Amino acid sequence: MTKFKYEEFTWPEIKTAVAQNRVAVLPVGTTEQHGPHLPLVTDVLTATEMSRLAVERIPEEAVLLPSVHYSFNEHHMDFPGTIAIAGETIVRYVTDIGTSLARHGFRKILIVNGHGSNVPFLDIAARNITNGSDAVAAMASWWSLIPKEVITNLRESEFPGGMAHGCELETSVLLHLRPDLVQMDKAERDISFQSTEFFYWDLQNPSPIFFQEWFSRYSRTGTVGDPTKATAAKGEVFVNAVVDRMVNLIREFRAREIAPRVDHH
Ligand SMILES: [Zn+2]
């Protein structure tokens, strides 16, 4: 079995992995409340496990970095357990990880995101890495990799609002990956968020505008969505869909040529 976990390599082995043009895959989650039925580690676990399953399938084409466990989530601080990192810190931290990889010669860096509120910060971090090195960095949130029709076929909760946080989607995925960490007897539907034309929240088809309020203003339980509709069988389909597409994404990214810059001054 080819080695793929970054932290298990020696330095000569890293040199070889760079020569093999492997894609560096960095899962980024967060440590935050996910309602009364899911653990704080949910977003780390989803990003890490899906990345691991993908890289494990093509170990000679990628390396899996140790995950980032903490990130931006100030808006969850009204619920116990959340660890909130400032936006500037997470941008800087992930930029430094990617830039280090680039300095060792990795040219393709894929950030796999498990937390909705990471999107703007990881987008900036990926751009910083690309602009500040010879590498190209890209970011993908795992739920964006699920083909729309896969979600539509299985979805039972209402749109919008049924799939947002600790919801039908996330709870299904956890029921498949780590059923021992899910307390379904405590799962409760909580969709008190006022959905209007522009202000709504759903992972399947996000609102055209960006906004985020204090979570406790519109969620009583810490959940937004309907986790009572979650099943392990749906979770398996969602996870397989993400992993299949992530394998294709890694391969496409690896094969992609980096064109030379042209200075037109
Ligand atoms: Zn989450």
Describe the structure.
The structure is a single chain. The chain is of the alpha/beta class. The protein has a single domain, classed as 3-Layer(aba) Sandwich (Rossmann fold). It is 37% helix and 10% strand. The protein is built from 7 helices and 6 strands, in the order H-E-H-E-H-E-H-E-H-E-H-E-H. The protein has helices at 11-19, 42-57, 87-103, 119-132, 148-154, 168-177, 232-255; strands spanning 23-28, 62-64, 108-113, 136-141, 163-165, 224-225. The strands form 2 sheets. Strands 2-1-3-4 form a 4-stranded parallel beta sheet, with helices on both faces. It has a two-stranded antiparallel sheet with strand order 5-6. Strand 1 (23-28), helix 2 and strand 2 (62-64) form a beta-alpha-beta unit. Helix 2 (42-57) crosses helix 7 (232-255), helix 3 runs parallel beside helix 4 (119-132) and helix 6 crosses helix 7. It is globular, with a radius of gyration of 19 Å. The protein starts with 10 loop residues before the first helix and ends in a 10-residue tail after the last helix. The structure holds zinc ion (ZN). The site of zinc ion has 6 residues, from helix 2. Residues 34, 42-43, 115, 165, 170 line the site of zinc ion.
